[in-house]
Amino acid sequence: MPNEEETLLFKQNLDRLVEAAVARFRENPDLASLKGDNPWLILEKAQLYFGLTLWAAYRFKDPAIHRKLLPWVYRSYWRHGFAPDYFAATLQIWIDISSRLLPLSEIYTALMHDLLDLDAEMRAQSREVPDSYITPGPEQELFLALIEQDEAKIGGLLGQLADELGLALYSRVLQPIMYEVGRYWEMDKISVDQEHEISARISSFLAAKEVPIPEKPGHSILITPAPNEFHELGALMLANYFRAAGWQVHYLNAGTSRTELSAALVRHRPAVLAISVALVLHAPYLPDYISSARETAPGIKIIVGGRFINQHPELVPQLGVDGYAETCEKALALAEKLVGE
C-alpha cells in the first residue's frame, strides 16, 4: 500500500485521474454503452466515488475497505442500469491511466489488480438479495408508509412507537429504517428523490420532537457530521438523545469545515466532540478533521459513529479518537464514561 506521501500524491492527482477515466468512456462507444441509459453526470460521479474509495483504502492502508464495498457496488450499479462489464472496465481503465499519470504506479495499481481478480465472484454475489434491516410489525408498516408518503399513517405510527419506546425509537426503529431505505435504493426499488423525501420526513419529526432541556444542563457535547457528509440523520438523533439525558448540546449542520469546527470548539468549549460519518467517501477526511480538533481543543474527548464506523470498527484506532459507538445509547454511555474519567 502507498505510504503517507504517496497517498497524498494520489489525492492531489485524483481530479486528473477522474477526468482521464471519463474521457476514456467518452472516446470509446463500446465503453460508453456500459453506463446504460444513465446520463454522463452519473458516470462522472461514479468514477469520482471510485477514486475516493481508493483514496480511503490507501489512507487507512486497508484493502478490505474496497473489498467489503464490492458486493454493494456491483449489485447497486447493475440494478441501476450499468452493464455487468462496467466495473471490470473501470478497473482496467484506472490501471492504465494510473500507469500513465502516477510515478511508481505499481504501488497504486496492486489493489486494483486484486479487485479485478474478484470480478467473477462479485458478479455472482451481485445477484443475491441482501437481507432486510427491519422486522414485520409497526416498524415495517412505518417504513412502507414513508415510501407511500401516507402522512396520516406516518404520524400515527411515529406517535405510537415514540410513546411505546421513548428514545429507544432511534436505534430500534429509525436507524434500521434508514438502513432499509438504503437497501431499497440499492435494489432500485426507490429513487434518489424518494430517499431524500423519506430522510426529510424523519428530519422533520426529529426537529419537531420536544426534548426537555434541563434548567442546569450537565456536560456539553458538540455534535457534527463528518466533512462533506450530508447524511446527518444519525447526528440529529444523537443530539436529541443527549439533550434528553441532560447534556448541553451544540449541533453543527452537515458540511461544516475544519475552520468552522475550530471556531465552534473555541466558542463552546465542549467536554466531548462527536462526529458521524455514514459513507466511505468522506472517511479519508476524518484524520485531518480530528487532528485539527485536537490542536484547537487539547484534552477534548472525541467519539465517532455512523454507518461507515459500524462497518469498519477496526479502523477506529487510526483516527486518534477516544472511542466509537454503534447506537445513541452506547454513545451516551461512552461519553459519560469518558467525562467521568
Backbone CA Rg: 21 Å
Mean pLDDT over the residues? 92
Count of helices? 17
Classify the secondary structure makeup into a structural class. Answer: alpha/beta
| C-alpha geometry | globular
Profile the largest sheet: 5 strands, parallel
The number of E-state strands comes to: 5
- What is the strand arrangement across the widest sheet? 2-1-3-4-5
Quaternary assembly: single chain
What is the beta-strand fraction? 5-15%
Runs in which pLDDT lies below 50 for 5 or more consecutive residues are none
**H-E order:** HHHHHHHHHHHHEHEHEHEHEH
Task: Break the fold down into its secondary structure elements and pairings.
Blueprint: H1 4-12, H2 14-27, H3 29-32, H4 40-59, H5 64-79, H6 86-101, H7 105-117, H8 119-125, H9 138-148, H10 151-165, H11 168-186, H12 192-208, E1 220-225, H13 233-244, E2 248-251, H14 258-268, E3 272-276, H15 286-296, E4 301-305, H16 307-311, E5 323-324, H17 328-340
Parallel strand pairs: 1-2, 1-3, 3-4, 4-5
Helix pairs in contact: 1-4, 2-4, 2-6, 6-7, 9-10, 10-11, 11-12, 12-13, 13-17, 14-15
